[in-house]
Amino acid sequence: MSPWLGLLAADAPLAPHDLWTAWRFEPQIVVPLLVAGALYVAGVVRLASRAGWTRHRRWQAAAFAAGWGTLVVALVSPLHPLGETLFSAHMAQHELLMVLAAPLLVLSRPLVPWLWALPIGWRRGLGALGRGWLGRLWRGLTVPLVAFTLHAVAIIGWHLPRLYDLALGSEAAHAAQHLSFLGTALLFWWSLAYGAAAEERWGAAIVWVTLTMAYTSALGVILTFAGSSLYPAYGARAAAWGLTALEDQQLAGLIMWIPAGIAYLAAALVFAAQWMSASERRVRFREAAAAR
């Protein structure tokens, strides 16, 4: 038996009667969440006092609150320890990070409130970094092709059985898995929403999100129709929940295939609506210019 499978086997699987008391208040998760939330609130308050509380900023604040709350559900609620017992719960946790929390946080554009929450000297220093190497790195990582590739490598790579089993038995590997899923998802959605001029990005965004839906759905289909359990680390841990390991894997595949696929499809439709709206604005602008 590999060492990480042994580590996993040492912990008793979470039983249904223990679910609602299984909240995880791990400092390495809770502290960054609290700091991010507090900085956002402080930055929004400072911005509102200077520039007024516009309707657009209300929507951004609502998106941040929803994204932040989704992170709490995924990383602090009983869903987190349940993911160590049920593959399907682990899959739901990952999809919450990648297809719900990440796009909501991107829509909220939190960088501006975070900067405004800092002392002016810090803002100037970070602004200088943004105009230098840090800004160049960010622009390189948010090229849609680069962000798409990084996200695909993270998703496909961590679903290889050896790496997935490693993440289940090693806290460091598990943290790296979640950070790579969330981090590359943030890059991916940011690149689609803000990575190019409006007239260029919406059509490309439809392509990239459709490609992502295609390969994630393919992974979901593989998990759903596999004839045997692909992740031995889970073993018989699903039995307490009335599932075999194979049934648990099939449910995980369906989660990755259907609900996540619907989320990607909804995003593609939003991008299509934005594309048509941008095209209409260009036509009106040209007609007005011709009339003048």
Describe this structure in words.
By secondary structure, this protein is mainly α. The protein contains 14 helices and no strands. The longest helix has 33 residues, at 259-291. Residues 1-10 have low confidence and may be disordered. The protein starts with a helix and ends with a helix.
Walk me through the topology.
Layout lengths: L2 H7 L17 H25 L3 H21 L3 H4 L4 H22 L2 H6 L3 H12 L1 H9 L2 H15 L2 H9 L1 H24 L3 H28 L19 H13 L1 H33 L1
Helix pairs in contact: 1-10, 2-3, 3-5, 5-11, 5-13, 9-11, 9-12, 10-11, 11-12, 12-13, 12-14, 13-14
Describe this protein with a few key phrases.
single chain, 292 residues, mainly alpha, 14 helices, disordered N terminus
Q: SSE string, helix = H, strand = E? A: HHHHHHHHHHHHHH
* Total count of strands: 0
Structural class: mainly alpha
For the residues shown, what is the average pLDDT?
Answer: 87
Shape: globular
Straight-line distance between termini: 78 Å
Radius of gyration: 21 Å
Any idea how many domains? 1
Query: Please, how many helices?
Result: 14
Q: Portion of residues in helices? A: over 70%
Uncertain residue segments: 1-10
Strand content: under 5%
Main sheet summary: none
Gist of the model:
This protein has 292 residues and is an all-alpha fold. The chain has 14 helices and no strands. Helix 9 (144-158) packs parallel to helix 12, helix 12 (198-225) runs antiparallel to helix 13 (245-257) and helix 13 (245-257) packs parallel to helix 14 (259-291).
